[in-house]
Amino acid sequence: FLLWRSRGSGHSSPGAHASAWDWYHGNQGSGLCPKAVIYVRHQLSKAVICAVACAVVLVGCCWLLLLLVFLLLVVFLLLLLLLLLFLLLLRPRIPPVPISGPGTF
């Protein structure tokens, strides 16, 4: 940024080519039409707004994707827990073997 600014002094001589900085800020050292300056500035502003909007959408989509993966993981773990509980309830019951009682030595 500093190098770009140092190239365009802001006071270009009439015969010199204007830098991008001069174009953006409307310094017409090269005889650039004010309408062209306004157009270029408008296009740059639109490009910056579009880039920011795309970044926001991408970040939002990433958060939504992470949330979706997290929810799917939670649902999978809950289903696994229910399956284990179901299998524990369905296992065959083994009657307890008496340690002492009538008929035992």
From TrEMBL:
Keywords (A to Z) from UniProt: Membrane, Transmembrane, Transmembrane helix
Membrane-spanning residues: 47-66, 72-90
Superkingdom of this protein's organism: Eukaryota
The protein, known as: Uncharacterized protein
Taxonomic source organism: Polarella glacialis
